[in-house]
Amino acid sequence: MLAGGLRSVGKISILIHSSFHDLGDRALFISPLLAAVPTTLEWGPKTAIVMILCNILAIAIGKFTIQQPSVGPELPSSNMFGGMGLGALLGTTSLGHILGAGVILGLASMGAL
Fold first, then answer.
1. d(CA 93, CA 56)
2. If both were cysteines, with which of 37, 65, 68, 100 could 51 make a disulfide (CB 3.0 to 4.6 Å apart)?
3. pTM here?
4. How far from chain centre, in Å, is Cα 21?
5. CA 64/CA 74 separation, integer angstroms
């Protein structure tokens, strides 16, 4: 029942199809959602460079906006990260990954990556 209405969207659809095989009619509500899932970009050097640049940007933003960046455990060679502590580094790189994911998805949808 599901195999006829399910559009292949890569490895994810195969896993979801096999796990929802025994649901019967309830799986009919999920199959339109699977057809709407876009194909994602594979990880490569271009996406890695975009993610690295977004993390560097987030560290630079954090260096100028965090009031006490050196509070908490120190990092080895903290000069490389602008004298930030571990908490500030984890916060800024978390922001960098969020920015990077958005930028990568945006550039991929525009066809630039």
1. 8
2. 100
3. 0.63
4. 29
5. 18
pLDDT at 82: 72
> Taking the alpha carbons of 92, 98, 99, 101 in that order, is the dihedral positive or negative?
positive
Q: Whole-angstrom Cα distance, residue 82 to residue 86?
A: 12
Report d(CA 100, CA 89) in Å as an integer.
Answer: 16
pLDDT digits (tens, 9 = 90+) for 72-99: 888 887 777 777 888 888 999 999 999 9
Please give the structure tokens belonging to residue 19: 């796990």
Give me the mean pLDDT over the 34-55 stretch.
84
Helices (H), 1-113: 2-5, 11-19, 31-35, 45-65, 86-110
